[in-house]
Design a protein that fits this description.
- This protein has about 300 residues and is an alpha/beta fold.
- It has a single domain, classed as Alpha-Beta Barrel (TIM Barrel), CATH 3.20.20.
- The chain contains 11 helices and 10 strands.
- A 10-stranded mixed beta sheet has the order 1-2-3-4-5-6-7-8-10-9, sandwiched between helices.
- Helix 10 crosses helix 11.
- It is globular and about 50 Å long.
- The model has no long low-confidence stretch (mean pLDDT about 95).
- The structure holds iron/sulfur cluster (SF4).
- Iron/sulfur cluster (SF4) binds next to loops.
Length: about 300
């Protein structure tokens, strides 16, 4: 990895793994350990926030330059030249997580049991930064997670449908980010770096109903940019037929502060109003919401929310 880039990432408290992967503690891990507050993934799906490892196997590689992205985009690459092997990435990511959680050891606001659990992550959120499907051995990585009994959530921008078609095994839960209702908004807000980015995303949506796993459409909502157009979003949701839809407000953090304003963060009422309109258009129901993460969950069956209970 370029030395300048690793310095930038380390300054942002990333732990670099090998030549193209990275781990960073999620804000909610600390909140859970110190204040008992959990992330929406715990509320919605039963994922325990202090046992969640947030990582990416393509930390600097992406096919888009979204304006709302927290990632440093100055040295971005659209592909991976060299690939580290999946087991070593997972080993390195777990080691990195353990190193990063050391800071909480002995803090009187947490218990030794909770801290020990945080050092043994059982969930991998493959979503930190970059486009993970650019890593050609992603299936091997998910397989390595499965062998350790870890749940996996994968977030993709949908521009690599061929990679998803090949992906074996699939993650426990697959997210596709749909941050635009049409190509025009997509081009301006998600700034594709590949030809036919929008058409590739649509192909991913078409593929989704055939993938045998839990699927979610994530709408990253940016005030003044992509809120509204519920009828157009509904048509795209109909194509993808996901198990859940997660409208979630953009957060003004990291390098996105150089491209966005504080006012681009929608209030929870805005996220909720959009979600209510989307529910009417799609027939999905509002199943849950969490104001602290500015997120609403839409779905067809409340009983399917919890992982392991369905
Ligand atoms: S697709 Fe994800 S990682 Fe890539 S630029 Fe957009 S938000 Fe950032």
């Amino acid at each position: 990895m370029d030395e300048r880039l690793s310095r930038i990432l380390e300054k942002q408290h990333y732990h670099i793994v090998g030549s193209h992967s990275g781990v960073k503690l999620c804000h909610w891990l600390g909140e859970k350990l110190l204040r008992g507050r959990s992330c929406y993934k715990e509320t919605f799906y039963g994922i325990r926030s202090h046992r969640c490892l947030q990582m990416s196997p393509a930390v600097n590689n992406c096919t888009q330059s979204c304006l709302f992205c927290w990632r440093y985009q100055g040295l971005s690459e659209t592909g991976l030249d060299v690939e580290d092997d999946p087991e070593s990435i997972l080993e390195g990511a777990i080691e990195g997580q353990r190193r990063l959680v050391t800071g909480y050891k002995g803090d009187p606001r947490t218990t030794p049991e909770m801290w020990a659990e945080a050092s043994e992550p059982n969930m991998v959120a493959i979503s930190l930064a970059g486009e993970p499907t650019l890593y050609g051995q992603l299936g091997g990585f998910i397989d390595a997670c499965n062998k350790r009994g870890m749940t996996t959530f994968l977030v993709t921008n949908g521009t690599e449908p061929e990679a998803l078609e090949r992906l074996d095994p699939l993650p426990t839960q697959l997210y596709v980010t749909l941050a635009a209702p049409n190509e025009e908004v997509y081009r301006r807000l998600c700034v594709p770096l590949v030809k036919d980015g929008w058409q590739r995303l649509i192909r991913t949506l078409e593929l989704l109903p055939d993938l045998n796993t839990r699927t979610v459409i994530r709408h990253t909502l940016v005030d003044g940019w992509n809120i509204g157009w519920e009828k157009e979003y509904a048509r795209l949701i109909e194509t993808a037929d996901p198990m859940f839809v997660e409208p979630k407000g953009y957060v003004f953090v990291g390098y996105s502060r150089e491209r966005m304003r504080n006012s681009n963060m929608p209030a929870q009422e805005t996220v909720r109003a959009f979600s209510d309109n989307l529910a009417k258009e799609t027939g999905y129901e509002v199943l849950a919401e969490q104001g602290s993460s500015r997120v609403v969950l839409l779905g067809k069956d409340k009983r399917a929310m919890r992982i392991g209970d369905d």
